[in-house]
Specification:
The chain has 174 residues and is mainly alpha-helical. It contains six helices and two strands. It has a two-stranded antiparallel ribbon. Strand 1 and strand 2 form a beta hairpin.
């Protein structure tokens, strides 16, 4: 078997040609035979939409940070943050509603944003309500009306004060 130099010479020539072609190309230019990279088109209305979206995201992250931090924020602080977020979200919903057709926004996205905003409003109402929780009765309770106390005694030696005691005495002592 006799070694041939032709294949080796062909490989060297092809390699030099490719490296020479690469030297003539500028940065970002495709190699010969390659397709140029496709640039993404910026959607219409993006410049108007982006600042509104960024503001809503910023306020939403502020609410999240306030509720997830180790020292919980007070209800008033969270209420104020939620109201600010709700205002930013309302602007976003209004923009989407006004520009659905002109910006090519799908109607489903507008409906979903509106539903999210209604949930946000319910959350704001729940957090910001003046009542700190369920309403407490202001008048006397049933135990005061019957003349009894609400709780038992804490003395473990008192008669009829154990876990197994019933109205008629201890079940185990019978």
């Amino acid at each position: 078997m006799k070694p041939t130099r032709f294949p080796l010479a062909a490989v060297v020539t092809m390699g030099l040609t490719a490296s020479a072609a690469a030297q003539f190309l500028g940065p970002g230019m495709p190699m010969p035979g390659q397709m140029p990279p496709q640039r993404q088109q910026i959607p219409p209305c993006y410049r108007e939409f982006q600042p509104i979206k960024d503001e809503a995201e910023k306020r939403g992250l502020a609410v999240k940070a306030a509720t997830e931090k180790k020292d919980k924020a007070s209800r008033e602080e969270v209420c104020a943050l939620l109201k600010r977020y709700s205002e930013a979200e309302a602007k976003l919903v209004k923009f989407i509603k006004d520009n659905t057709t002109s910006c090519g926004i799908p109607p489903e996205a507008a409906a979903q944003m509106k539903a999210n905003h209604s949930r946000t409003l319910k959350t704001v109402q729940g957090v910001c309500s003046t009542a700190g929780g369920p309403a407490r009765p202001t008048g006397p309770g049933l135990s005061e009306a019957l003349g009894t106390t609400r709780g038992g005694t804490l003395d473990p030696l008192a008669p009829n004060s154990g876990t197994l005691d019933t109205l008629t005495g201890n079940v185990l002592s019978r």
